[in-house]
Write a structure and sequence with these properties.
- By secondary structure, the protein is α+β, with helices and mostly antiparallel strands.
- The chain has three domains: 205 residues, Aldehyde Oxidoreductase, domain 3 (Alpha-Beta Complex), CATH 3.90.1170; 329 residues, 2-Layer Sandwich (Aldehyde Oxidoreductase, domain 4); 141 residues, Aldehyde Oxidoreductase, domain 4, CATH 3.30.365.
- It has an eight-stranded mixed β-sheet with strand order 3-5-1-12-9-10-11-20, sandwiched between helices.
- Helix 6 crosses helix 7, helix 9 packs parallel to helix 10 and helix 17 crosses helix 18.
- Bound molecules: pteridine-2,4(1H,3H)-dione and dioxothiomolybdenum(VI) ion.
- Pteridine-2,4(1H,3H)-dione binds next to helix 9.
C-alpha cells in the first residue's frame, strides 16, 4: 500500500484551485434565489403580501408553496417537512417564499418589501417540555438487556443524575447551496454541495413531480459537511432546481453564512437522566438512561440519530443489565440533524457522566471504574451484537502505559499543591464506535471504472469528497489493484447519472463501502485482462500473473506486456475495459421489533488522555495535551487518517467546551454568527496532540483492513469536559457543577466561586 500519497486534494486546496459549487462557471441569464424565511418560531400564517416586492425591477418571480409542481415535501425518513411553509410556520428561519431575481442585491431589497402576518402559537424550545406535552417526532425507542430492576436491588451503590449536552453548528467552510439549469426532455441538472447526491435527486424529483431519471445531481466536492449536508442539502437543491425547471433558466441558491446558521439544523441537544448501579468491587451491574432528544420542528434524521444514541449508550463498557430509552422531541427550532458522531457522542457523554458521578461519590478516580468495566471479546452489547476483535483494553492499557498516566496523576496533583490560581485536571476517555449505517439497507455502494485505450483510468463512485480524503483512498484502491501509478488515475465528480442509488457519504463508512465496490469493479477488469494475457501468451492455466509498477509479471518474471501496451492490445481484441462494481456489507442485520441484531460490520476503539490547565481568576482554560491511542486497523493512508483523527478531536473539544448554541425563548438563534459562536482556533487547540497508531491486523470488513476513521475520534473530545471539571474541583472542591456541556469559560468562572466562599 502506498502510504505516501497523502491527500491528493491538498495542492488544489492551498492554491485555491479546488472547485466548489460556487466556482462552477455559470450560464448566461442565471437567476439568484433568495429564501424569505419565517420571522416567528410558531404560528398560523394569516397573510403574506409580496406584490410590491414582485413588482420591483429585477425581480423575476416570487414563489410560494402554491407554485410547487409536485409534492411540497422534503422529509427523508418521515414525510413531515414542507419545502415552503403553507399555512403554519414551525420554526424561525423556516423557508416561506423564494425570491427569484436577476441579481443578488435586488433580491435583498425585495426581501425587505415582503409583509407577512402570523398569528403566534405557543413556542417550545425545551425537549422535556415537548415530551410532557406529548410532542414527539417519531416513536420512542428502548434497548433492553438483562433485568435492571432486579439488578439494581442487588447493587451496593446506586447513583442518579441528569445531564445536558448542547447543540453544535456544523460550520462547514462552504455554506449550503446548489446551482441548477434546465436540460432537454424536461430534465434538470443540479450541482449541489451535498453529502447525499441521491437524497437531493430524490427530493428534487418529488418536489417537481418527475421521475428520478429526469434529475441529475453532480457533486464536485464539498468544503466540509460534518453531517450538516447529509440530509439538509436537499432543500437548497430543490429550490434551485424548481426555479430552473419552471422558469427554464439557470438558477443558483446559496445562503450567506448567517442565513445558513439561522435556517439549518445542528447537532441535536440532549437532556438525559441516568441511574447507575455498582457492586462492592466497582463492577457496574446495572445502567438505566432516558434520553430527551431536541429534534427541532421536523424529523429530518433525528429518528436515526436517536437510534445511534442507544447503540452507543454504554460506550466501551460491558454492563450486564441495561435499559436505555430515547424520545425524539418536537420543538420549534430548525430541524436538528446529523453531526459527526450522529447521536453517539450524546449517548457516551451520559455514560461518562454517570461513571464520573459514581467515582466522585465513592472518592475513587474514575479510571478505576472505567478500566474495571471495559468490554472484551465475547461480551454482548445491549443490542445483541457480540464483541469480536476487541481493542478496548489494548488501547486503554497502551495509552496508560506509554503516556505514563500514573505519573501524570502525580504531576497534576503536585502542580495543584504548588499553584493557587492555576489548577490542572486530567481525564481518560475510551471510545467504542460501531461502523455501518444503523439502517442495514443503506450499507451498499457502487462504482464505475473506465480504462481508456491509452491506459489512463477514470473512476466514479458514490463517495463524496468533503475534505476527508476519500478520493485519495479511492485512488489508492485503483492504483493498488491495477499495479499502476496514481498519475494514471482520475477521480471524477460524484454524479447520480454515473453511479446511482448512492447512500450519503456518512456514518464513517464511505471509504469502506465505495472502496469495496470499486475493488469489485477493478477486479472484474483485471480478470478480463488476465484471461486475455493467458490466451495471448500461455496455455497454462496455472501461470501466476501480477502487475507491479505497470509491468506484467508471469510467474515472477517480467513479460513483454506493460500496462499501456496490455490495454492497447486488449482494446484491439475488443475486451471490455469498463466495469461497474457493487458492494453490500455482509453479515449485518438488525430487527427493530426486538431491538436486537448485529448492526455493525466492526467497531473502532481508542483511548484519550486529556490534561488541561484552568486559570482560576479568569475562568479560562488551556488544553495542555490530548494523547491518544487509536485503533486504525492497518491504515492505508496514515496522513489522511491522522488528519481525520486530529480534526475530530478538536471538533469534539469544541462541542464540549466552547461552542454554545443559544436560542432565546422565542426560538431566535442568538449565536448566529462567528462573533457569537466560537469554534476552536489555533490558540485553543491542544498544545500537544499525540496520536499513537495501535498495531493491529485490522478488519476484513474494512477496505484494505484500514478501519473507518471519520467519526470515532470526535468523542475523545468528551475527555476535555471532564478534565476541565476536575481542574475546577481542584480549586473549589465544594463546587456544584452540573453535568452540562459545553463547559464554557463563563460556566467555569461561576463554578470556581460557587457556592460563594466555597
Ligand atoms: N447517517 C445515517 C449516519 O443515515 N445512519 C447512520 O447510522 C449514521 N451514522 C453516523 C453518521 N451518519
Ligand atoms: Mo454523518 S454525522 O453525515 O456521518
Amino acid at each position: 500500500m502506498d502510504n505516501t500519497i497523502g491527500n491528493i486534494d491538498a495542492a488544489g486546496h492551498v492554491t485555491g484551485r479546488s472547485i466548489y459549487v460556487d466556482d462552477i462557471p455559470v450560464m448566461e441569464g442565471m437567476l439568484f434565489v433568495k429564501v424569505f424565511d419565517s420571522p416567528i418560531a410558531h404560528g398560523r400564517i394569516i397573510s403574506i403580501d409580496f406584490s410590491a416586492a414582485e413588482q420591483m425591477e429585477g425581480i423575476v418571480k416570487i414563489f410560494s408553496y402554491k407554485d410547487i409542481p409536485g409534492q411540497n415535501q422534503i422529509g427523508g425518513i418521515i414525510p413531515d417537512e414542507p419545502l415552503l411553509a403553507d399555512h403554519e410556520v414551525h420554526y424561525r428561519g423556516q423557508p416561506v417564499l423564494l425570491i427569484v431575481a436577476e441579481n443578488e442585491d435586488t433580491a435583498e431589497e425585495a426581501f425587505k418589501e415582503i409583509k407577512i402576518e402570523i398569528e403566534p402559537l405557543p413556542i417550545i424550545t425545551d425537549p422535556r417540555d415537548a415530551f410532557a406535552q406529548g410532542k414527539l417526532l417519531s416513536p420512542s425507542r428502548k434497548f433492553v438487556m438483562g433485568d435492571v430492576k432486579t439488578a439494581f436491588s442487588n447493587c451496593k451503590y446506586i447513583f442518579e443524575g441528569q445531564t445536558e449536552s448542547g447543540g453544535q453548528e456544523q460550520l462547514y467552510l462552504e455554506t449550503q447551496g446548489a446551482y441548477a439549469y434546465p436540460n432537454e426532455h424536461d430534465s434538470v441538472k443540479i450541482f449541489s454541495s451535498t453529502q447525499g447526491p441521491t437524497q437531493v435527486q430524490r427530493t428534487v424529483a418529488r418536489v417537481l413531480g418527475v421521475g428520478m431519471n429526469k434529475v441529475e445531481v453532480d457533486v464536485p466536492r464539498l468544503g466540509g459537511g460534518f453531517g450538516g449536508k447529509e440530509d439538509q442539502a436537499s432543500s437548497w437543491g430543490a429550490m434551485a432546481a424548481m426555479v430552473a425547471w419552471i422558469l427554464k433558466r439557470p438558477a443558483k441558491c446559496i445562503p450567506h453564512r448567517m442565513e445558513d446558521m439561522r435556517m439549518t439544523g445542528k447537532r441535536n441537544p440532549y437532556s438525559s437522566d441516568f441511574k447507575i448501579g455498582l457492586d462492592g468491587d466497582l463492577k457496574i451491574i446495572a445502567y438505566e438512561a432516558t434520553f430527551y432528544q431536541n429534534g427541532g420542528a421536523a424529523a429530518d434524521l433525528s429518528p436515526a440519530i436517536l437510534e445511534r444514541t442507544l447503540f452507543h449508550a454504554t460506550n466501551s463498557y460491558h454492563i450486564p443489565h441495561v435499559t436505555v430509552t430515547a424520545h425524539s422531541c418536537k420543538t420549534n427550532l430548525p430541524p436538528n440533524t446529523a453531526f459527526r458522531g450522529f447521536g453517539g457522542p450524546q449517548g457516551m457523554f451520559v455514560m461518562e457522566a454517570a461513571i464520573d458521578h459514581a467515582a466522585k461519590s465513592l472518592k475513587v478516580d474514575p479510571d478505576i471504574i472505567q478500566r474495571k468495566n471495559m468490554m472484551d471479546n465475547g461480551d454482548e452489547l445491549p443490542y445483541g451484537q457480540i464483541i469480536k476483535e476487541c481493542q478496548a483494553k489494548n488501547c486503554w492499557d497502551e495509552a496508560t502505559d506509554i503516556y505514563n498516566v500514573e505519573s501524570v496523576k502525580k504531576e497534576v496533583e503536585w502542580f495543584n499543591t504548588q499553584n493557587q490560581f492555576y489548577k490542572k485536571g486530567w481525564s481518560l476517555m475510551p471510545v467504542c464506535f460501531g461502523i455501518s449505517f444503523t439502517n442495514t439497507m443503506m450499507n451498499q455502494a457502487r462504482a464505475l471504472v473506465h480504462v481508456y485505450s491509452d491506459g489512463t483510468v477514470g473512476v466514479s463512485t458514490g463517495a463524496v469528497e468533503m475534505g476527508q480524503g476519500v478520493n485519495s483512498k479511492m485512488l489508492q484502491v485503483v492504483a493498488t489493484c491495477f499495479g499502476i501509478s496514481p498519475q494514471k488515475i482520475k477521480l471524477e465528480t460524484t454524479n447520480t447519472t454515473r453511479v446511482a442509488n448512492t447512500s450519503p457519504s456518512a456514518a464513517s463508512s464511505t471509504a469502506d463501502l465505495n472502496g469495496k465496490a470499486l475493488l469489485d469493479a477493478c477486479n472484474q477488469i483485471k480478470e478480463r485482462l488476465f484471461s486475455f494475457i493467458k490466451t495471448e501468451l500461455t496455455d497454462n492455466e496455472d501461470e501466476i500473473i501480477e502487475i507491479k509498477d505497470e509491468v506484467v509479471y508471469i510467474n515472477d518474471e517480467a513479460s513483454i506486456f506493460n500496462w499501456k501496451n496490455l490495454i492497447q492490445q486488449a482494446f484491439m481484441k475488443r475486451i471490455n475495459l469498463s466495469a461497474k462494481g457493487h458492494y453490500a456489507t455482509p453479515i449485518i442485520n438488525f430487527d427493530k421489533t426486538i431491538e436486537k441484531g448485529h448492526p455493525f460490520a466492526y467497531h473502532v476503539y481508542g483511548t484519550a488522555l486529556t490534561i488541561v490547565t484552568v486559570d482560576c481568576l479568569r475562568g479560562t482554560y488551556e488544553i495542555d495535551a490530548v494523547k491518544v491511542v487509536h485503533d486504525f486497523g492497518s491504515s492505508m493512508n496514515r496522513s489522511v487518517d491522522l488528519g481525520q483523527c486530529e480534526g475530530g478531536i478538536v471538533q469534539g473539544i469544541g462541542w464540549m467546551t466552547m461552542e454554545e448554541i443559544i436560542y432565546n425563548e422565542e426560538g431566535k438563534l442568538l449565536s448566529n454568527a462567528l462573533s457569537t459562536y466560537k469554534i476552536p482556533d489555533i490558540y485553543s487547540v491542544p498544545k500537544t496532540l499525540d496520536v499513537k497508531f495501535l498495531n493491529t491486523d485490522g478488519n476484513d470488513m474494512a477496505i484494505f483492513k484500514s478501519k473507518a476513521v471519520g467519526e470515532p475520534p470526535l468523542m475523545y473530545g468528551i475527555g476535555a469536559y471532564f478534565a476541565i471539571r476536575n481542574a475546577v474541583l481542584a480549586f473549589n472542591p465544594a463546587a456544584d457543577i452540573a453535568y452540562a456541556a459545553p463547559i464554557t469559560p463563563e460556566k467555569v468562572l461561576m463554578a470556581l466561586y460557587n457556592p460563594v466562599g466555597g
